[in-house]
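Human: I hope this is not a bother. Would you mind checking the protein record under this note? Thank you for your patience.
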Amino acid sequence: MSQGRTFVAVTDFTVGIDDRETQKFFAEDPQTGAPATEVSFEGHDLLIDGKESDLDRGKVKVFSRAPFNNLEVSANLVFIGENVNFPELLSLEEILHTAAAFYPCWNHSLALGLLEYFNIPLHRRHKKLSRGMKSIFNSVFGLSTRCSLTIFDEPTLGMDAAARKDFYRGLLKDFMQHPRTVILSSHLLNEVEHLLDEVLLIDRGQKYLHLSTHMLKNYAVGLQGNEKAVKDFIGDTEILYQKKLGKDSVYTVAINSFTREQLREAGLKGIEVIPVSPEETCAYLTAREEGGIDRVFERNQL
């Protein structure tokens, strides 16, 4: 829904991310005394156009405070996305030198070391960088702030595979040495799932699921074999995806409500039990229509 430049970002959406549930990873910053990180969103429609007055049908709280025009929240939170704005007249080096004035935990030597490693020329201006170089600089900047709440929105856009791998490794290494809450949005779940403690899946403005990574890995199961045998085994269990593999064979992905013993028995009946990755599970859950894109081609064969 669009109302001029205002749009509904989320509907019937409530989620809380509270570090008190994962103390060994998300803790109060010992250097600044920043509050333990807590982020919550609740309400029916959250209208996004930069005006606090339009949030009358929902609430956003960060560190248990309203984040708008709040200096304490701003000093302990950084948001890094593709369209992050840096002063156009400053070089990258000058941008780095100004960061300490805004972020109490800013680590200048880390920023310089990482940018040197990635061969980012500090004399250049941000707007003159390629898309990949911008993503690297933005991500290094966000990492070096060491904010209690660090949000990366698709941080690796334009990076090649090697750069993405280095960024993930650097993020994990710095996170382990300096724990804080990191929210990472990505469509490349297979690349980042090893970094994640929890996964929040949002589809068309609604929360689809919010699970630990471990639970998501076991959320669905693939079953392949004789169509009747698979159907009888599944019973009333919810099916997420199904594809015919021949006259009598089928591959089915279902909600994994089975015990280990039941899956072992399925194997004895000639049904192959196949793990379903978190990325595949999310794709099946948010498929635009039953049968996925294959069904479109099946209906439109010439």
In short: Confidence is low (pLDDT under 50) at residues 20-55. The chain has two domains: 2-185, 217-299. Residues 217-299 form one domain. The longest helix spans residues 161-177.
